[in-house]
Amino acid sequence: MTVQVKRVYEAEEATDGKRVLVDRLWPRGVSKDRADLFEWCKEVAPSTELRRWYEHDPAKYPEFVSRYRAELAEPDAAAAYADLAKLVANGPVTLLTASKAEGISQAHVLAALLEERDPLVR
Fold first, then answer.
1. Alpha-carbon distance 119 to 108, whole Å?
2. Is 89 left (phi over 0), alpha (psi -120 to 50) or beta?
3. What pLDDT, on a 0 to 100 scale, did the predictor assign at position 31?
4. CA-CA distances (angstroms) from residue 108 to 31, 32, 34, 94, 104?
5. pLDDT digits (tens, 9 = 90+) for 6-34
6. Rounded to 5 degrees, what are φ and ψ at 54?
7. What percent of the chain is helix, strand and coil (3-state, nearest 5)?
8. Which pTM value belongs to this model?
9. CA atoms of 57 and 64, how far apart (whole Å)
10. β-bridge pairing 93-97 and 3-7
């Protein structure tokens, strides 16, 4: 499996494969008609409450991972996650996020889970 994480503002590259936006909100400054996306999978994004609590605080990362995994187990998120896992199984996927939090965004947690790695081991 090949999963990478990029900011949605980065230009598309040949090695990106399917580009999937995994943020709940559409990123500022990116027009929908110009976004190089395969799909927008907002169902796998953390809830607004969890996102606001976390605020990409490195000290909160372990608890964020735990709480986010619990959210991903809820029915709608679990179905979307399963579809995303199928997409990953069929070729390279780039998870796109607007987050500047290198290594600790929800997209990085998703990438680790999709690759069957522990998100807490970086």
1. 7
2. alpha
3. 83
4. 24, 23, 24, 11, 6
5. 999 998 999 999 999 999 999 888 888 77
6. -70, -55
7. 45, 15, 45
8. 0.93
9. 9
10. parallel
- pLDDT tens for each residue of 35-76: 789 999 999 999 999 999 999 999 999 999 999 999 999 999
Among 33, 24, 41, 54, smallest CA distance to 95 is for 41
Amino acid at 117: R
Report the interhelical angle of 106-114 vs 61-72 (nearest 10°).
Answer: 60
**What amino acid occupies position 114?**
L
Q: Which residue has the tokens 């400054």?
A: 29
Strand order in the sheet with 93-97: 3-7, 93-97, 18-21, 39-40
pLDDT band, very low/low/confident/very high, at 1 (cuts 50, 70, 90): low
